[in-house]
């Protein structure tokens, strides 16, 4: 009786201590998050780091769940001129759950590290605007997670609530680019008549539409799309040129993409392990090299989000397959985090590569929607609202040209290291100004002549 | 002759031309719809003005009569009529204050955050956007305790308003209510500073009345020991010196808060303390009502604290035999230590007073549970740090037992956890996580501003910012209303 009583009370005291101390150092708790828990987790990160985070939603899923995004940057809520925009999207296949969890852990990790004074993270957050969308298909996830037992079906919960596979639902711009390659035409921003193509297209799922609007609204520079079912970093193009099931389909930025994909895989010990056996006995991973693969070489995917990003906007996106098992058991989540943490952070840093700067007119005003082209790469980019641009490039010597309608094109030579990004600004002279100049020159000459000849 | 003919011909041609051109100028009476409407419109414009006014009036009357049939639902007309009445009443009723009662924007103020370049922030669902707009109107008609109308729409007198505010403060035990309302009114320019001061006095008075009234009621209900009476007496005093244990932590806590407050108005202090004392009173009374024999311990035992733990008392009573006195003493010491610890946490703002209270209540319930499940396991002694190391060292025999106990209790704790269904939506869990997150933020801010050499971070600005953000998140469906309220509550208690 004596012991027992004291037990109770000291135990109670211990409870007081434990609950008061809380989780030390802000540990991450490695468990699956359903929709409510996901929301709670993001709100908690925001509450812990309100000066560098903001939660917003890009729309609702078919069943009405918010498509939540957590942005992390030094000045959340606004695009700062010259600050590159980055995004991670996960769980577009609802039953590929690892990516979803990794992004939640990443949010918690970045917030904790920021507050603990981690210089790398602090610099990264101050110099980048990072958007994290843990789940593009929350409806599918709920379906997948509701399955009883440990083993989850390969397909249940993959598509959205309407049965649409979101990664086949995007407008197929690959077809168009292949035609343009043969017959001539634009090599970038191929989504013409956007309003009509998107808003009036009844075949697009609400999640797809929301993401397309998001891509059009924010001048994303670099992105990655998190999946499961294998372990590799996949880069454009996903759809084969000839329509065959396997064929290496290089994009104009093949070299750049390989460099970006490798920057993820090298820090993931499983992904970059040359001795890694395939996930399933009969899998064909012949196209995997150093943990990366071209999309078409692996298998053809039409209507995917990755290529859509590249062909409709300035954003370079790769697809990350992060686990052989699409929905592994909860106790493996910690391992997946350990495997991917460094890769996830390092990949964000890749946004600070290549060449970047501003395109302005002679009065110093930024010229938006100016074209940035690189000699030898048949893919142009455009400047954002303030005239700012970011052109990701692998190391080398390049000629970069800035042009805009009504202005004279300027070409600059630049030598680009691996990192950081090289700053190159352009001042464009408008045609009117040039004409004005020439006229003045002519007047001066005339005046001189007349003075000399006295008439 | 020929020339004449030609001349005539020319003339005739000219004439014909004129006629023709004139004919084309004549309005052709085609029966197109456009012409008809034009035709009608002209008629309307020509109607006598009086007629048109009469028509408009009859329409209005019809609308009004329709609306008056549903008096509780729509207060449009009432409000419009009442506006004038109200201002007259106001100026009549109280010469000091003229609280205009146009529209009091309630919880939802205009969003401060401007729409920036990207439309992620402006992107809302159509319904959300619309209901936001209407929300401003609906707020007028709901029974909002902070609105200046009674439920049935009749305008409030000034006294009513003062009473209402005092009631609200009393209920919520939150002086912030007053600040909130006054700041809103000041911001809107509806009252001047001096009027605000006057309002303060009046609210303070009303609150004081409320408290004494309730205290008297509570005193009458009391049948128990001196403790209650002592408290009753203290209510009437306004001195700080107070042997009662529950008052000091809260008072100290709020005093700390008041240091941060810019306003040092004495009357406000009084209101504050009164509110606290009263809260202590009501809390005590709740406990009292719950227990049957809770207050049988005499104050000489120095156990005033512990009378709020009826189950614990039952335990103690069962230890009345001589051989158990030491055990009894130990238990009492432990319990007091626990309470002190909780008080400390409250004082330093780690938890809110409410949370401290609920924690201790839970503790008592836990003791009740344990008295039911009697256990007698003895375990090996792992590492153990008590909440207050001194006590352990003083009692050697408790140290060994303590080790076992902690292990014991942790096992119990774990099993309780498993028993609960994984309802992650339960409120306490959520608010704990949020509380934890907010605490980390505050800690970091404190550390950060110290490092930067700045003065203390601006807590009130942070609070305002967070309130705004919470509101905008609720609007967009990112957090639920109750969660938002929890967060605001946590921030307001800092």
Automatic annotation (TrEMBL), chain A:
<keyword id="KW-0325">Glycoprotein</keyword>
<dbReference type="GO" id="GO:0006518">
    <property type="term" value="P:peptide metabolic process"/>
</dbReference>
<keyword id="KW-0121">Carboxypeptidase</keyword>
<comment type="similarity">
    <text>Belongs to the peptidase M14 family.</text>
</comment>
<keyword id="KW-0862">Zinc</keyword>
<dbReference type="InterPro" id="IPR034232">
    <property type="entry name" value="M14_CPE_CPD"/>
</dbReference>
<keyword id="KW-0645">Protease</keyword>
<dbReference type="GO" id="GO:0008270">
    <property type="term" value="F:zinc ion binding"/>
</dbReference>
<dbReference type="InterPro" id="IPR057247">
    <property type="entry name" value="CARBOXYPEPT_ZN_2"/>
</dbReference>
<dbReference type="GO" id="GO:0007154">
    <property type="term" value="P:cell communication"/>
</dbReference>
<feature type="domain" description="Peptidase M14">
    <location>
        <begin position="31"/>
        <end position="351"/>
    </location>
</feature>
<keyword id="KW-0472">Membrane</keyword>
<dbReference type="InterPro" id="IPR050753">
    <property type="entry name" value="Peptidase_M14_domain"/>
</dbReference>
<dbReference type="InterPro" id="IPR000834">
    <property type="entry name" value="Peptidase_M14"/>
</dbReference>
<feature type="active site" description="Proton donor/acceptor">
    <location>
        <position position="321"/>
    </location>
</feature>
<dbReference type="InterPro" id="IPR008969">
    <property type="entry name" value="CarboxyPept-like_regulatory"/>
</dbReference>
<keyword id="KW-0482">Metalloprotease</keyword>
<dbReference type="InterPro" id="IPR057246">
    <property type="entry name" value="CARBOXYPEPT_ZN_1"/>
</dbReference>
<dbReference type="GO" id="GO:0016485">
    <property type="term" value="P:protein processing"/>
</dbReference>
<dbReference type="GO" id="GO:0004181">
    <property type="term" value="F:metallocarboxypeptidase activity"/>
</dbReference>
<protein>
    <recommendedName>
        <fullName>Carboxypeptidase E</fullName>
        <ecNumber>3.4.17.10</ecNumber>
    </recommendedName>
</protein>
<keyword id="KW-0968">Cytoplasmic vesicle</keyword>
UniProtKB/TrEMBL annotation, chain B:
<dbReference type="GO" id="GO:0030658">
    <property type="term" value="C:transport vesicle membrane"/>
</dbReference>
<protein>
    <recommendedName>
        <fullName>Secretogranin-3</fullName>
    </recommendedName>
</protein>
<keyword id="KW-0968">Cytoplasmic vesicle</keyword>
<dbReference type="GO" id="GO:0033366">
    <property type="term" value="P:protein localization to secretory granule"/>
</dbReference>
<dbReference type="GO" id="GO:0030667">
    <property type="term" value="C:secretory granule membrane"/>
</dbReference>
<dbReference type="GO" id="GO:0005576">
    <property type="term" value="C:extracellular region"/>
</dbReference>
<feature type="region of interest" description="Disordered">
    <location>
        <begin position="99"/>
        <end position="150"/>
    </location>
</feature>
<feature type="compositionally biased region" description="Basic and acidic residues">
    <location>
        <begin position="140"/>
        <end position="149"/>
    </location>
</feature>
<keyword id="KW-0964">Secreted</keyword>
<feature type="compositionally biased region" description="Basic and acidic residues">
    <location>
        <begin position="118"/>
        <end position="131"/>
    </location>
</feature>
<feature type="region of interest" description="Disordered">
    <location>
        <begin position="225"/>
        <end position="305"/>
    </location>
</feature>
<dbReference type="InterPro" id="IPR026197">
    <property type="entry name" value="SCG3"/>
</dbReference>
<keyword id="KW-0165">Cleavage on pair of basic residues</keyword>
<keyword id="KW-0472">Membrane</keyword>
<feature type="compositionally biased region" description="Basic and acidic residues">
    <location>
        <begin position="99"/>
        <end position="111"/>
    </location>
</feature>
<feature type="region of interest" description="Disordered">
    <location>
        <begin position="374"/>
        <end position="395"/>
    </location>
</feature>
<feature type="region of interest" description="Disordered">
    <location>
        <begin position="410"/>
        <end position="432"/>
    </location>
</feature>
<feature type="region of interest" description="Disordered">
    <location>
        <begin position="46"/>
        <end position="81"/>
    </location>
</feature>
<feature type="compositionally biased region" description="Acidic residues">
    <location>
        <begin position="255"/>
        <end position="279"/>
    </location>
</feature>
<feature type="compositionally biased region" description="Basic and acidic residues">
    <location>
        <begin position="280"/>
        <end position="289"/>
    </location>
</feature>
<dbReference type="Pfam" id="PF15467">
    <property type="entry name" value="SGIII"/>
</dbReference>
<feature type="compositionally biased region" description="Acidic residues">
    <location>
        <begin position="290"/>
        <end position="303"/>
    </location>
</feature>
């Amino acid at each position: 009786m004596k012991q027992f009583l004291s037990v109770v009370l000291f135990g109670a005291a211990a409870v007081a201590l434990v609950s008061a101390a809380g989780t030390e150092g802000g540990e991450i708790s490695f468990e699956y998050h359903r929709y409510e828990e996901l929301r709670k987790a993001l709100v908690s990160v925001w509450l812990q780091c309100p000066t560098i985070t903001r939660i917003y939603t890009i729309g609702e899923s078919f069943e009405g769940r918010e498509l939540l995004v957590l942005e992390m940057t030094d000045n959340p809520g606004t695009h700062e001129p010259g600050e590159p925009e980055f995004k991670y999207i996960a769980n577009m296949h609802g039953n590929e759950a690892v990516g979803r969890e990794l992004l939640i852990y990443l949010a918690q990790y970045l917030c904790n590290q920021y507050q603990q004074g981690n210089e790398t993270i602090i610099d990264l957050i101050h110099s980048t605007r990072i958007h994290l969308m843990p789940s593009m298909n929350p409806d599918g996830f709920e379906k997948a997670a509701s399955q009883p037992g440990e083993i989850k079906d390969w397909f249940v919960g993959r598509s959205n609530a309407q049965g649409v596979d979101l990664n086949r639902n995007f407008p197929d711009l690959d077809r168009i680019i292949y035609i343009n390659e043969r017959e001539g035409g634009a090599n970038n921003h191929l989504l013409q008549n956007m309003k009509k193509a998107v808003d009036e297209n009844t075949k697009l799922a609400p999640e797809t539409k929301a993401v397309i609007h998001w891509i059009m609204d924010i001048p994303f520079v670099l992105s990655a799309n998190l999946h499961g079912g294998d372990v590799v970093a996949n880069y454009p193009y996903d759809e084969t040129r000839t329509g065959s099931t396997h064929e290496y389909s290089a994009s104009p930025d093949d070299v750049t993409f390989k460099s970006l994909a490798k920057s993820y895989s090298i820090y993931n010990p499983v992904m970059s392990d040359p001795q890694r056996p395939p996930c399933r006995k009969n899998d064909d991973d012949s196209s995997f090299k150093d943990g990366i693969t071209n999309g078409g070489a692996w298998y053809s995917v039409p209507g995917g989000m990755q290529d859509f990003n590249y062909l409709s906007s300035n954003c370079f996106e790769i697809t990350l397959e992060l686990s052989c098992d699409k929905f592994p058991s909860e106790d493996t989540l910690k391992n997946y985090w350990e495997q991917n943490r460094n890769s996830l952070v390092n990949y964000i840093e890749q946004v600070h590569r290549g060449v970047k700067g501003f395109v302005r007119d002679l009065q110093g005003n930024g010229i938006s929607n100016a074209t940035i082209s690189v000699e030898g790469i048949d893919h142009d980019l455009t400047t954002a609202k303030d005239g700012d641009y970011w052109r990701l490039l692998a190391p080398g010597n390049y000629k970069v040209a800035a042009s805009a309608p009504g202005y004279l094109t300027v070409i600059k030579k630049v030598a680009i290291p691996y990192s950081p990004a090289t700053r190159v600004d352009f001042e464009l002279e408008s045609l009117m100004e040039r004409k004005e100049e020439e006229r003045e020159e002519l007047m001066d000459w005339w005046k001189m002549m007349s003075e000399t000849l006295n008439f | 002759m020929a020339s004449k003919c030609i001349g005539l011909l020319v003339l005739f041609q000219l004439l014909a031309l004129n006629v023709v051109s004139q004919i084309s100028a004549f309005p052709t009476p085609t029966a197109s719809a456009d012409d008809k409407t034009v035709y009608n419109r002209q008629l309307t414009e020509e109607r006598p003005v009086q007629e048109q006014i009469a028509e408009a009036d009859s329409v209005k009357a019809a609308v009004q009569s329709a609306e008056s049939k549903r008096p509780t639902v729509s207060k449009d007309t009432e409000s419009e009529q009442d506006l004038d009445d109200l201002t007259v009443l106001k100026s009549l009723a109280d010469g000091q204050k003229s609280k205009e009662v146009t529209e009091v924007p309630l919880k939802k103020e205009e969003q401060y955050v401007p729409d920036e370049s990207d439309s992620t922030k402006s992107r809302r669902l159509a319904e959300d956007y619309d209901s936001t707009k209407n929300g401003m109107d609906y707020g007028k008609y709901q029974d909002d305790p902070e609105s200046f109308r009674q439920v049935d729409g009749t305008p409030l007198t000034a006294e009513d308003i003062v009473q209402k505010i005092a009631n609200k403060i009393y209920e919520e035990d939150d002086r912030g209510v007053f600040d909130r309302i006054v700041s809103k009114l000041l911001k809107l320019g509806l009252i001047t500073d001096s009027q605000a001061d006057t309002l303060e006095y009046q609210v303070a008075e009303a609150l004081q009345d409320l408290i004494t009234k309730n205290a008297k009621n509570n005193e009458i209900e009391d049948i128990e020991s001196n403790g209650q009476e002592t408290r009753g007496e203290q209510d009437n005093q306004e001195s700080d010196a107070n042997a009662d244990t529950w008052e000091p932590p809260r008072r100290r806590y709020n005093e700390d808060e008041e240091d941060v407050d810019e306003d040092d108005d004495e009357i406000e202090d009084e209101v504050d303390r009164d509110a606290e004392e009263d809260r202590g009173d009501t809390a005590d009374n709740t406990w009292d009502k719950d227990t049957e024999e809770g207050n049988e311990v005499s104050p000489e035992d120095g156990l005033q604290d512990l009378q709020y733990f009826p189950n614990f008392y039952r335990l103690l009573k069962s230890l009345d035999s001589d051989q158990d006195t030491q055990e009894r003493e130990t238990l009492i010491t432990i319990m007091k230590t626990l309470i002190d610890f909780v008080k400390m946490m409250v004082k330093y703002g780690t938890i809110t007073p409410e949370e401290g209270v609920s924690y201790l209540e839970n503790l008592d319930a836990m003791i009740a549970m344990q008295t039911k499940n009697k256990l007698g396991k003895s375990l090996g002694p792992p590492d153990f740090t008590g909440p207050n190391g001194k006590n352990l060292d003083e009692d050697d025999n408790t140290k060994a037992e303590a080790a076992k106990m902690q292990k014991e209790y942790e096992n119990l704790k774990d099993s309780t956890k498993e028993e609960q269904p994984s309802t992650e939506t339960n409120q306490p869990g959520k608010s704990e996580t949020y509380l934890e997150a907010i605490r980390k933020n505050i800690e970091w801010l404190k550390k950060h501003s110290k490092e930067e050499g700045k003065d203390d971070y601006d807590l009130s600005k942070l609070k305002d910012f967070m309130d705004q953000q919470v509101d905008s998140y609720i609007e967009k469906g990112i957090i639920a209303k109750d969660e938002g309220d929890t967060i605001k509550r946590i921030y307001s208690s800092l």
